[in-house]
Amino acid sequence: MKIELAGTWGYRRMIRSSLPSILMMLTISAYSIADGLFVSNFTGTTPFAALNLIWPAIMMTGAIGLMFGTGGSALVAMILGQGDKERACRTFSMIVKTLFIIGIILTVLFIIFIRPISLMLGADEQMIDYCVTYGRIVLIVMPLYMIQMAFQSLYMTAEVPQIGTKLSIISGLTNIALDALFIVVFGWGLVGAAIATAAGMAVGGLYPLYYFSSKKRNKTHLRFVRTKTIGNVIGRVCTNGLSEYVGSIALSIVSMCYNLQLMRLIGQDGVAVYAILMYIGFVYASAFIGFNLAVSPVISYNYGAQNHAELKNLLHKSLILLFVIGTLLTIISEVLSNPMAGLFVSYDLQLKTLTAHAIRLYMLSFMICGLNMFVSAFFTALNNGLVSAAAAFTRTLVFELGAIFVLPVFLGLDGVWLAVDLADVLALIMSVILLAAFRRRYRY
Question: What is the pLDDT at residue 233?
């Protein structure tokens, strides 16, 4: 099945075309939380807390792949909209090649300095060795994980999002099966979880390199060609994708600050609760991210073709769909908070009660956070990475980070869980202002 970027987009077409990307992201989120479920239930709170203490730092590196993918996808799709397929292939090839080289360099540096990084993140004597062991194993395949992250966007630009969905399912099943084998059967604990995660990442990163290198298999309009890395093109790609990178970096920094605050307020249990919130939140956000990944290349294509009527149509329909999805997810959280908490910490009634209460407060933000995420993705698709980055930066590193440290002063522990809700309300106001400010320029 091939999904065309051109044409008029109604609700039905948007939902049908975004389903492969949403399923891909949901699958990635499912195997991302597999480690947490197995580690929490079979190895205990300390390894579970250690895994989630080091994970934000790993994600800060992997997010470079997301930046190259979203920024590159916007540029390549715009070039395709202008009708220059050969230039689009050269840009596509340059993006992937440069990203892989950067991935190797950063991986080596991270492996060398992972112990001081873990200490800086707040790891205590009980957690430090777990952080270092898990991190070093996963980092071995970090260049491939960065490739996997980049192709989350590039599959849609190539008009074959179903490949990403199928590959995510295979990667996820690989991770989950190996988690069960290594942790439950062999009893390898956190080491087994790290190996399982690395294996899933390797599968997800190797296949797109193979597929787009094969003239026989690859039937898309994008292919790998010989090309030199051109600084101004890579700079433009990074600028376009800056908001997604800033968003991921900011999320990692915010996660570190949540962990520091929670270690101060209630210790390892707080870190464990926040990790569960992140797992559930990642599953929820997957619906928004998958939708944005599918719609963004369409926006870029129509922007390149100067089809302003369709830009307006895509903007309005996307905002309505995301608000409906967000409302449904919020209702699910309020109703099913206890079963959700029980999936992770059924063995500890006090921790389960604390987790369920945190879910009910924290997940209120999902009613509107999808709208904020889309506005940032919308400006990325318009190749205005600076505005997109400003939106992402302000939402997390200004509003949420500030709330993390201010609200607990007045509300105690509940202030930590409510920080994201306040941040998204403020971010929504900013999103409305940005859309209004640039309406004439882009004519949407």
Answer: 85
